[in-house]
């Protein structure tokens, strides 16, 4: 594998980028900053060297063979690590520059994380931030593929290098005219029979919602599924159901948030890195966030 990485890094990089660009040779060439003919030559050379077909021509695009998809899955991470190592070596002379690809959860789109990113940018204006919000599984997949340099994940990515940040409180969100709206706290069992609004099953909070409700003796009646947390709050405000959500950074008109006292609902968050090889810019952002991060009670 080492020999292949050394001798065929440009060809493998072209193949990985082609996969990321859904088979568009033009987009791949633009992303890598080379001529399209160069991409074609690289891929043809890789096919010849391996002795297996990698591409199926389909008009102006190409489709990847199963061998190509397997090769991309195996080499995307090592190629990203190689790029980080080279970047680290060349960036050492000027640690106040560079790019950091940083991911954070959808539930942290307001409050502490944006405030801290703004403060970091003012302190280190020559470091370029590429930000991505997504749910936990997608962020972990991007870390594994080398598409992110650093991310906050919920739950912690136990198999990656990580450092726990703390816990995020989950509260009950109800319309202001709901029967429970005047309560100082609720037991989860009080929600049996309620209609729920929740994320799709692939989301960590959906898994936790179902698990917590089962432990309380009932299965949640999820009538509406949606990815966006802000839209969940809008639907709750309109009386379409209740939801278990992280506490909002600001008060939403028409919604009452009620602590759940039995059981108390919490979920852990952590900072995660794809590898131990980082750049000075990544180190600066990680150290800043770990030092300054003041809490996880944001939505």
UniProtKB/TrEMBL annotation:
Q: Which organism is it from?
A: Gordonia phthalatica
Give the UniProt family note.
Answer: Belongs to the LysR transcriptional regulatory family.
List, alphabetically, the Pfam families matched: HTH_1, LysR_substrate
Domain of life, per UniProt, equals Bacteria
Gene3D superfamilies with a match to the protein in the record? Periplasmic binding protein-like II, Winged helix-like DNA-binding domain superfamily/Winged helix DNA-binding domain
Identify the keywords attached in UniProt to this record, alphabetized.
Answer: Activator, DNA-binding, Transcription, Transcription regulation
**Listed name of the protein:** LysR family transcriptional regulator
As given in the record, the signal peptide range reads: none
């Amino acid at each position: 594998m080492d020999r292949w990485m050394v001798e065929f890094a440009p060809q493998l990089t072209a193949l990985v980028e082609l996969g990321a660009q859904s088979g568009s040779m033009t987009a791949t060439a633009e992303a890598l900053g080379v001529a399209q003919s160069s991409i074609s030559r690289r891929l043809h050379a890789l096919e010849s060297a391996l002795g297996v077909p990698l591409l199926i021509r389909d008009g102006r695009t190409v489709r990847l063979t199963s061998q190509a998809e397997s090769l991309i899955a195996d080499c995307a991470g090592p190629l990203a690590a190689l790029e980080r190592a080279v970047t680290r070596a060349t960036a050492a002379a000027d640690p106040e520059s560079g790019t950091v690809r940083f991911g954070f959860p959808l539930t942290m789109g307001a409050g502490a994380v944006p405030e801290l990113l703004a403060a970091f940018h003012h302190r280190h204006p020559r470091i370029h931030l590429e930000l991505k919000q997504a749910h936990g599984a997608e962020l972990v997949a991007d870390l594994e593929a080398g598409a992110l340099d650093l991310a906050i994940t919920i739950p912690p990515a136990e198999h990656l290098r990580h450092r726990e940040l703390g816990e995020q409180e989950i509260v009950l969100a109800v319309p202001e005219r709901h029967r429970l709206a005047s309560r100082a706290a609720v037991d989860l069992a009080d929600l049996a029979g309620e209609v729920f609004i929740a994320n799709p099953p692939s989301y960590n909070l959906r898994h936790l919602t179902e698990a917590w409700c089962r432990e309380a003796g009932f299965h949640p009646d999820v009538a509406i599924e949606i990815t966006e947390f802000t839209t969940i709050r809008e639907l709750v405000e309109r009386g379409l159901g209740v939801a278990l959500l992280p506490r909002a950074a600001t008060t939403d008109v028409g919604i009452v948030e009620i602590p759940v006292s039995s059981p108390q609902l919490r979920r852990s968050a952590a900072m995660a890195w794809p590898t131990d090889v980082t750049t000075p810019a990544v180190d600066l952002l990680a150290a800043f966030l770990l030092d300054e991060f003041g809490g996880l009670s944001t939505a």
